[in-house]
Design goal:
By secondary structure, the protein is of the alpha/beta class. The chain has a six-stranded parallel beta sheet, with helices on both faces. Strands 11-10-9-12-13-14 form a six-stranded parallel beta sheet, with helices on both faces. Strands 16-15-17-18-20-19 form a six-stranded parallel beta sheet, with helices on both faces. The chain is globular, with a radius of gyration of 25 Å.
Length: 560
Amino acid sequence: MEKSTHKDRRPVNSVKASDLFVQSLEAEGVEYIFALPGEENLDLLESLRSSSIKLVLTRHEQGAAFMAATYGRLTGKAGVCLATLGPGATNLTTPAAFANLGGMPLVLITGQKPIKQSKQGQFQIIDVVRLFAPICKMTKQIVHGNTIPALVREAFRLAEEERPGAVLLELPEDIAAEETDEPVLKPHERYYAVADDAVLDKAVELIRDAKMPLILIGAGANRKDARDALCDFVQTTRLFFFNTQMGKGVVDERSELFLGTAALSANDYVHCAIERADLIVNVGHDVIEKPPFFMKQGGKKVVHVNYKSAQVDQVYFPQVEVVGDLARSIQRLQYKLGDAVSYETSYFQKIRDEIEIHIIEGAHDPRFPIIPQRVVADTRHVMGEHDIIALDNGMYKLWYARNYKAYQPNTVLLDNALATMGAGLSSAMMAAMLYPDRRVMAICGDGGFMMNSQELETAVRLKLSLVVVVLNDSSYGMIRWKQSSTGFQDWGLDFGNPDFVKYAESFGATGHHIEAADALVPILKKAFETGGVHLVDVPVDYSENQKVLIDELAEKVCLI
């Protein structure tokens, strides 16, 4: 009798652990994995080769994870990214925080050296699981192939469950290579509870008793399909509303009841209305996003409407919390309220008229370099109702939040939670992949763009149709603005830039340089009509920052 081998003793239905991992991802409906793999990922990479999942290779781990996080933001399903151990994993920390603070479902997969027997000592070894624990909802090392189905299922459940965020799974290379006979765990539908009648009645009582109530729409309303319910609520109650930066577009901002976006935390024109309000119905906002208003003891009351209870803060301590499925909560509030609420509207209308005047100021200004108001207005002119702009982080983000009206949910992608630089290009690339029939534009400062500009090659390789606007002032403009407003001297924030046209062309994209204010719209239109990847270098004049956002606001008097 021949001696049996270890291979002969494997269970009949056993598979390699990396194959089981991929099968578990397929069961979750994963379409893409955005990756910069290393040698510790090779078993998983081989398993992906014959799977239904598309591998998208990027030029930096940040690019991979920013794309995956934006996939989660736009679809509600967890995006997935892959990196190796050590420096590959550490490069994922910023996107992990970006997703976790921004409420974007994201599953990060990292490799690791063998954990049962290592022949390389501590080379490249750091405790990735502990490193990511403060910035993720869950971090786990997989120590046996049999645990893969349960851990993958739990990772996706946590990543996608309100409040969404980032989850990390570490798959060591020896675990990926071992055999297992565990079956895949398939996901099931999840439903959120509905708020109790008693708390809904308390909220209704506050709204009915208020003389000047307002609705605030935050990022949570953009994450789920709450548009229809909120539109009906606004139109039926006739309550004026405003939004946070990440709540833009949930309700069409062309509405006659829209006051504006709280781009600043205080002292803007919209805050005149907020300060006068005696009640705010806060739908989908939490304190992770920059505060759109400050609560004070004895001041206005707040009804918190969200999937989870309020995180109490010095500036946020709501009196009533309507916790449960957001759309259903709004529908039931509307049903209990009945017809339009009777309240004083004349002051809000005056403030709205004032804000509208300031938004259009500078929209046709011929100065060059171009002032921010003109850039925003020209962008709005070129982009259609369902088209998408993805903003990196910089001074222009405030101008777009204040002046760019969004008509549909998730058509303005910006980060007002971590507020990181370097994510705008990758976010736009993901939007272009998901919605090839829409116009997609990345809007970046020259500082933020250069942090991950290598992903232009990825965009060209993927044959995306995408326009990248680089606002060029050869400095870190927002910090320069803060430096000036603080009274410090202008110092230490200037840098040089490459020739952006030649730079784009070196990646196989098409470059354009704007030489007059009137040239921006024709070049943007031509770029979209031509298709492919286009970079548009736009010299920008930020002197309006001081004039409009500091001097004018300091002199403003809220209407009586």
